[in-house]
UniProtKB/TrEMBL annotation:
It is found in: Cell membrane. Residues 482-646, 796-976 form the Protein export membrane protein SecD/SecF C-terminal domain. This is Multifunctional fusion protein. PANTHER family: PROTEIN TRANSLOCASE SUBUNIT SECD (PTHR30081:SF1), PROTEIN-EXPORT MEMBRANE PROTEIN SEC (PTHR30081). The chain crosses the membrane at residues 502-519, 531-550, 556-577, 598-620, 626-650, 684-702, 816-833, 840-863, 875-895, 926-944, 950-974. It is a multi-pass membrane protein. One of its GO terms (cellular component) is plasma membrane. Keywords: Cell membrane, Membrane, Protein transport, Translocation, Transmembrane, Transmembrane helix, Transport. Signal peptide: none annotated. Its main location: membrane. Residues 183-239 form the Protein translocase subunit SecDF P1 domain. GO terms for molecular function: protein-transporting ATPase activity. Forms a complex with SecF. Part of the essential Sec protein translocation apparatus which comprises SecA, SecYEG and auxiliary proteins SecDF. Other proteins may also be involved. Forms a complex with SecD. Part of the essential Sec protein translocation apparatus which comprises SecA, SecYEG and auxiliary proteins SecDF. Other proteins may also be involved. It comes from Ancylomarina subtilis.
Amino acid sequence: MQNKGAIRLLAIVFALVSLYQLTFTYVTKKVEKDARLYGAGDIKKEQTYLDSIRGEKVYSFLGIKGYTYKECKELEMNLGLDLKGGMNVTMEVSVVDIIKAMANNSKDETFVAAIEKAKQMQANSQDDFVTLFGRAFSEINPSAQLSSPDIFGTLELKDKIPFGAKNDEVLKVLKSETEAAIDNTFNILRSRIDRFGVAQPNIQKADVSGRIIIELPGIKDAARVRKLLQGTASLEFWETFTYSEVGGALNAVNTKLAEINAASEVIESKPEVKKEAKADEEVALLDKIEGESQDSLSNAKELAKKYPLFSVLNPNQGRSGSSLAVVGYSHIKDTARVNNIFAMPAVKSVLPRNLKFFWGVKSIDDAGNIFELYAIKVTSRDGKAPLDGDAVTSAREEIDQRSARAEVSMSMNGEGSKVWARLTKDNLQRAIAIVLDGYVYSAPTVQSEIKGGSSSISGNFTIAEAKDLANILKSGKLPAPAHIIADEVVGPSLGKESIQKGMWSFIIAFVLILFYMFFFYSKGAGLTANIALITNLFFIFGVLASLGAVLTLPGIAGIVLTIGMSVDANVLIFERIQEEMKAGKGLSLAISDGYKNAYSAIIDGNLTTLLTGIILYIFGEGPIKGFATTLVIGILSSLFAAIFITRLFFEGSLKRKRNITFTTKLTDNWLRNASIAFIQKRKVFYVISAIAIVISLGSLFTRGLNQGIDFTGGRTYVVAFDQPVVVGEIAKSLDAVYGHAPEVKTFGGDNQVKISTKYKIDEEGTEVDDEVEAKLYEGLKQYLPAGTSQESFLENNRKMSQKVGPTIADDIRQSAVWSILFALIVIFLYIMVRFSNWQYGLGAVAALAHDTIIVLGIFSATYSIMPFSLEIDQAFIAAILTVVGYSINDTVVVFDRIREYLGLHPKRDPEENINNALNSTLRRTFSTSLSTLVVLLAIFFFGGTSIQGFTFALIVGVVVGTYSSLFIATPIAYDTKLRIQKVISKKK
């Protein structure tokens, strides 16, 4: 083996990096355990602990670098919502509404007709809406001009769309403006999400234009989230006070609070430690939070009583670099307390009526702990801002030619320019606050009166910060607020249950694989393979942590499946080594040649599965993307572990002159001398497969498939009760409130059901979502304990909810079809190129189509009789593509051996060569299939209800895929190529 030193070094470095990445997860779990101990069941105290320590260093890496809890939290392994609970939301910005708003809701007949036609075209096209709109506009009236004053030739757009501009030029502007609007919405949503206080939120733009995907772990109040995310952005410009103007009022507030007897209970700065059995332990934990002795803690409490406001709000007495409007600073954990203070009636009575406070949107320190408080001056009787975002017509980031610093230029409409001129004239050398959603994004100082509406905002901006501010200014009041088109809520108890079941399935599957390798390949080769598997597992988790990938329940299934499939590489190598040894070669040479001869099949087989995983990643969303991520990482890691790690161990054993065994007495001759006439009996297998396909197609055409809401649209709820319930009675009760009987199925135990309904799925808005949930509660109230409120029902009994709108359901369905077709095309091309014959590609794709039809047929025929859900959803598509990858892996190994036999024995009859090649792979084929089935059965029985249908598809697929790789793919390749060659050779 060449480059052993380099490979050993790479393995060590890889292991150390993986260990380093996983330590952050260990540290955060330890800190959170301390928080739970300190909180003693009090969630608020637990959160206070975490808020207080978020900026403290809790981990030192070898004394080289220290990490705060916040930094460790950002670097720990992310768990998906299905494992820890939370909310997944898909939002869509209506490009149609943006275009209409840009045209001032034009009534032009061609414009209106083009909008409607583009909507219809969008249902069957992957192009963006602006492109479709332009195409429809030209088809309806080829001579019409988009730059017409009746459409986009408006005063607001005159700088971007000049009179007489060509349609292509106008469409470019429309694309730019719609993309900017989507970016603005993305930034606004991201800012709102940052204020949820959610750990590890994730927000990303989807591939489909206008869609934004948001994951919020741990969220419980789904209704509040929906309202906050769908609210229209409100941009405002406010006059401000300076600290010198309001400092006296703040002192008065502090004095007033000190005079109130109950103030210490209301605004107590630090939680008091209870003197209980664990007092010493809790005091130690409190010391961790405060970082000070009990004496200093006592002093802090005395200070809080004397200065109840200033103990949580540090006054701004001339801090350099801050805005003139900043009056104080607070730690993030104290901001809510400051808000409560200013909301007290007694405090309001000593504050000027025209004074209000807004927080800065971003922290001013690197740790993300300290926030600025701005003093806002109210100048109108109705309490509204003197100028809002409607006045802004454009904003962009620029570089000042003189100072070379980033700045933001802004333009306003006519009415806004007049107000802006008055504001700037009245506030010379004072700050004007730019406020969005009640948070200050910037408060620049006015240097001079600004007439004409064109302004330049300068400061210590980076280019990125200037761009963000420009986007905020452009947002104004968005012409098209984002709507939720799909959401999923997973309760924390269901997430905890998923973790437990997922881990149990993982542990059981892993132990079974370790035992299987010992049993089949003895303690010599079996132990080496098991070490490689453990190393592989360690690498997979290390890579997931380092990439910031999200581990989901399907992701755990992907890892477990990877473990089962990674056995295949070891099996191929071990079987090859045994063949070399039986040919009379010594152990060292047999190992060397065994690896060499197995490389081709290993790389080809894993590469096809890798391609399938990549396709899944490209077309999938959410949990499916998580499954694909773990599958791809697992395949790459498995290749490294199987090819290099095991080889290093074998080389070490050979160097120490240790004997290595590759089989046991029980398994030595198993399928070793098989002699099945595959080619001669192929017509029998054709008939068997034809019958199975006809039955499958018959079921598909008559019964169809049980499509989940991913494909049909609708709402799904998983509800748990205290006692067993009858699904028929549940359906009847809900029929009375919804006006139709929803689909109700048992989900897991007999006290838990899954409810699917399409009630008002075509309508949007938080009011509709609230109504559907209210009716769900009303219909199920009689099955709940007396006195259960709707709030309690939604928090405790509703374990999961999911909503998929009709538009996204169409897209998911299209994506599923394209992903399967694309996978088949890619695999056909790969096989054709790799084996230099299209007939091999045809045989492989025919086998894959055979597998897919039969799996679909079994799902169609059995979905109403199985005790678990067999819905066709995104997870099922992932299963189908995984089956495709697994089946092609089997087929490629067989094709590789056929190619080898044909090369070694060119004069031998092709039928004999193929039969011998297939028989020689039987031992490997069944060993791999059996090990994979063992893993899948462990997932099926112990992995939980939510992935049983997914796993069932994989189990069926492995069985059918093994059959097709032996009895379908090769005979078809033979009939289309090798048989023709045989006829030609006989004629010669």
